[in-house]
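Message: A physicist's question: would you kindly supply an amino acid chain plus fold tokens?
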Amino acid sequence: MEEKAQLFDDMLAYVASYTLEEDRVVHHVDGSWNPNWQGLLSRPFTLNGDRLVISGAPGIDPITGEEVVYRMEFTKA
């Protein structure tokens, strides 16, 4: 059960459509495991060739307590 609880703390999930505004992607969140994410999430992004990087807002890592900025990186196959 403890392992299951830890996995939940590490999870990030939402369902959204999106629009692009200059250097930001705006997610129009329809549903999320985190109720604070309902509505709009605006995140900076960069697109270089076949590589897309979307950054999150600064937050606190739940394990270390340190301030972090999470990044999602995608490469077109």
